[in-house]
Amino acid sequence: MSSIRPLRRTAALAAVAVVALSACGDNADDSDGGSDGGSSGGGSSSGEQPDVNGDGDVTIGVLSPGDLNDNGYYESFVVKAQEFVDQQDGWELIQVGSINPADALEQARNMCRQGVDMVALAASELADALPAAEEDVCADTIWYLPSQTEGYELADNVVLSQDSASESLLAAGYALGLLMQDSGATTAGFVTGPELDFSIIAAQSFQAGVRQLIPEAEVVTTYTGDFDDSGLAVEATQAQIGQGIGGLYPYLGGATDAAAELGFEAGIPVLTPGTDRCGDGYAISVIFDPGEYFAAALEDFAAGELVGGETRIWRMGVDPLPTVQFCEDSGATAEHEQQLADFIASVGDGTIDPTAEVERLGS
C-alpha cells in the first residue's frame, strides 16, 4: 500500500454540513448522482479494491456516535450499508454505535485490528479517530468520512462526502414558512443537541429560510446537550409548544420521535432530520440521508473505483440529494410544492446564496 500522508488539521471542524459544508467550484454529475467538483484528487488505495488488505475477505467497519436504532440519521447510515453488503458475495459489516467521541481513536484502532478493509465514520463527532488512519494498526485500510468532517487535508486512503447544511436547512425553513403563512404563525421551534458549530449553523440557516417568507419570524432554539436523550428533548419541546410555536424541527438523533410526537399532538407541522419519513406523521421530509451518500461510495468501492484523497460534493438543486419535500398530509398545495421546487432550483443554479442568506437573516 502506498504511504499515508499525515492528516494535517488545517482548520477547525466547521460542520457547515450535514449533513456540512458549502460546496465550491463547478460540479459535474457522477453516474451515481454525486458531483465531483471541488475534489482534491489523489490516487486509489493501493490494495486491490474491495479487498484492500488482501486477506481474501471484504469487511466494512462502521463507527457511529449515535443510536443505531434511532429511526433517523444514524440508523440510515448502517441500514443502507447493510443493504449494500447483503447484495455482495461474502462481504461482512461490523458496526459499533453510541461511541463516546473521547473514545473514538481507540475504537478506530480496535476496528482495524479486526481486519477491516474500510473504516467508515458515521458522523463528524468521531473526527478524533482520524489519526489512526496513518498508524500501522490501520495500514491497508481505506477510510470514509461524512460531510461535517471538514478542515483536514485528505490522505491518499481517505475519502469524504460533503453536502451543505446551509442549503438543506435554508430550504427546510422555506418549506415550513410556506405552511406558516397559511396558518398565520410567526414563531417556529428548533430543538437540537449539543451547541456545536454545525448545530448552530443549522439553526441559523433554518431561521433564514423561514424569514424568506415571514421577515418578522422568530425561531426559538433550544440546545439540550444530547441528540439522543428523549427526556431532555421532551422537556425542551413542551416548553416551546407552550410558547406557541407554529412548527417544529427536532434536529436530533435518537430523541427525534419523542419530540416529534409532541408536535403531532399539538397539531403543528414537524420536519424530519435527514431522512424521508413521510407517512410517519411528519409534514416535511428534509433529506440529507448519510446512508445514501455512503451507499454511493460503496458502489464505487465494490467496482474498485473509489479514489482516495477525493471529496465528493452533493449539491441541492443539482444532485438528487440533499432535498426537501412536503408529505402528503402536510396541507401543502400544488402551488406550495412548485414554490419549494423553484426555491431549491434557485439554490442549485446559484441565484440564491445560502451563506449570504444566513448572514442576512439567520441571527
Automatic annotation (TrEMBL):
N-terminal signal peptide: 1-28
Pfam families assigned to the protein according to its UniProt record, in alphabetical order: Bmp
Keyword Lipoprotein part of the UniProt annotation: yes
Disulfide bond keyword on record: no
Membrane topology according to the record: Lipid-anchor
Domain of life: Bacteria
Segments of this protein annotated with the region Disordered: 27-59
Name the UniProt record assigns to this protein: Basic membrane protein A
